[in-house]
Automatic annotation (TrEMBL):
Active site per database record: C373 (nucleophile)
Coiled coil: none
Gene3D superfamilies: PUA domain, Vaccinia Virus protein VP39
Lineage: Eukaryota, Metazoa, Spiralia, Lophotrochozoa, Mollusca
Native source organism of the sequence: Mytilus coruscus (Sea mussel)
Binding site for S-adenosyl-L-methionine: C244, A245, A246, P247, G248, G249, K250, D268, D295, D323
Biological-process GO terms, alphabetical: RNA methylation
InterPro entries: MeTrfase_RsmB-F_NOP2_cat, MeTrfase_RsmB-F_NOP2_dom, PUA-like_sf, PUA_sf, RCMT, SAM-dependent_MTases_sf
Protein family per UniProt: Belongs to the class I-like SAM-binding methyltransferase superfamily. RsmB/NOP family.
Protein name: SAM-dependent MTase RsmB/NOP-type domain-containing protein
UniProt keyword annotation of Methyltransferase present: yes
Length: 451
């Protein structure tokens, strides 16, 4: 039986879905009966945003040169796929941000030969990527380089690598492409291949794939993440802490905003991820970032030297970014999330430990930005209510730029306080989807520590 999913909405565990639905509807002041706003949200989460945003390295490149180089690269790749050039423009407010308008879903005729890829790979394809060899799970026998195939994402994660026959689990069609290697080469254990395994010529969504080009010039970053670093507003010469920094997308942006001058401390618990921050900084010619593998919940020690690595004494930093671990339920596209309700509920306590350390490490008069990429109110507005109640020295600050919606309705938050919060809600019903509202789900709060 064909189990391909036609509706590309996000699938969640039943109790997680009903928990999130209740919260989402009550925070939007919607009665649960007969309302399909939450279903709309799940549908939007299952699809990619229709805009690709790329942040320019304005530290070492001139914007017009970058746009010209990018156009050339995209033209090359689009011509190879027989596509018309997309609209490429600068964001009207964020002048270091290139916006590319994508298309989709495009109606594609499926072919008989099927390649099954893992779910993360399938989701990347929906945002414009090609299929890398490591993502290939199933590929029919006799497949040769140059064969046209239909590519499907393995929704349940049950397809074994090397599968030769047709996959009978749930799968999602993500487009057609041309295989770059013979089957035997793809699964050869002696000399594992790397690079593109299927060049996507007819993706379900037409979006640019840079495949390692222009990496010193642009960084693909979701719009709310770009906004987040602007909201912190770091200044050259200041002492800034990025508490949960890897892979470093926001860290490098903070460095650019600081003009590579001052002290920027980037901490992450995972050693391997720290290397990613360093590699990205090197590519961009940034040398001001100090990176440390460390548990940021344990980062306060009054006997420590504020000029060394972590831990740090209280009141060391002018500004702190806490873009910490979260349930990531705002990520798009996302087809299946197997998170349990207990696991979903565990984030809040952990984030509070990080928030506590952040408040202690901030100088009086300093700024703290707290952000998540989730639509779960427990990790967003409710954390703000908790922080304001627990730390009397904190107050909410207006955010610039403010291109998202205001904070959702939440017990303990006044309407004025909600105005100071920024929530990117993929479930928004809008007459016109734009780069500012067709985004991943994201939440930003900006606090000041009063003197
Ligand atoms: C949402 S990601 C951060 C993304 C990053 N800010 C960026 O823009 O590229 C959250 C990060 O928090 C890190 N993390 C989780 N617990 C941590 C802790 N106790 N201390 C430091 N980092 C932690 C994870 O390793 C992960 O890299």
């Amino acid at each position: 039986m064909e189990k391909e999913n036609i509706q590309p909405h996000l699938l969640l565990n039943e109790n997680v879905e009903s928990y999130l639905r209740d919260n989402y509807l009550s925070s939007n002041r919607i009665s649960a009966e007969g309302d399909d706003r939450f279903e709309h949200l799940l549908l939007r989460l299952g699809c990619p945003p229709l805009f690709t945003t790329l942040r320019i390295n304005t530290l070492s490149h001139d914007t017009s040169t970058v746009i010209a180089s990018l156009r050339k690269e995209i033209e090359k790749s689009y011509r190879l796929r027989g596509l018309d050039m997309p609209d490429i423009s600068l964001h009207p407010v964020l002048h270091e941000t290139i916006v590319i308008k994508n298309h989709g879903p495009v109606c594609r005729e499926k072919v008989k030969k099927e390649v099954i890829v893992d779910l993360p790979c399938g989701m990347a394809v929906l945002r414009g990527a090609d299929v890398f060899v490591q993502g290939i799970l199933g590929c029919p026998s006799g497949t040769r380089a140059g064969d046209k195939v239909s590519v499907y994402a393995d929704v349940d994660g049950k397809c074994l690598r090397g599968l030769i026959k047709a996959y009978d689990g749930q799968k999602l069609f993500v487009g057609n492409g041309i295989v770059q290697f013979a089957r035997e080469e793809i699964y050869c254990n002696e000399q594992p291949l790397s690079g593109i395994g299927v060049l996507m010529t007819e993706s379900l969504y037409e979006a640019p794939s840079l495949n390692g080009t222009c990496v010193d010039m642009v960084f693909p970053q979701n719009l709310p993440s770009i906004i987040c670093s602007h909201v912190l507003n770091p200044q050259a010469g200041e002492t800034i802490l990025d508490m949960c920094a890897a892979p470093g997308g926001k860290t490098t942006h903070l460095a650019v905003l600081m003009k590579n001058e001052g002290r920027l401390v980037a901490v992450d618990k995972t050693v391997q991820k720290i290397e990613k921050i360093q590699a990205h900084a090197k590519e961009w010619g940034i040398n001001m970032i100090e990176t440390y593998p460390y548990d940021s919940t344990q980062m306060v020690d009054n006997k420590a030297d504020s000029f060394g690595g972590p831990p740090f004494p209280i009141e060391t930093f002018d500004r702190i970014l806490l873009d910490g671990p979260c349930s990531a339920l705002g990520q798009r596209p996302s087809k299946r999330n197997k998170m349990s309700l207990n696991s979903l509920k565990s984030y809040s306590a952990y984030q509070r430990k990080l928030l506590k350390a952040a408040v202690q490490l901030l100088k009086p008069g300093g700024t703290l930005v707290y952000s998540t990429c989730t639509i779960n109110q427990e990790e967003n507005e409710k954390q703000v209510v908790w922080a304001l109640k627990t730390f009397s020295e904190l107050s909410l600050e207006p955010q610039v730029p403010h291109l998202g919606q205001i904070g959702q309705v939440c017990e303990g938050l006044t309407d004025d306080q909600r105005q100071n919060l920024q929530f990117y809600d993929p479930g928004i019903i809008s007459l016109q989807l734009s780069v500012d509202n067709d985004t991943i789900g994201f939440f930003i709060a900006k606090f000041k520590k009063n003197e």
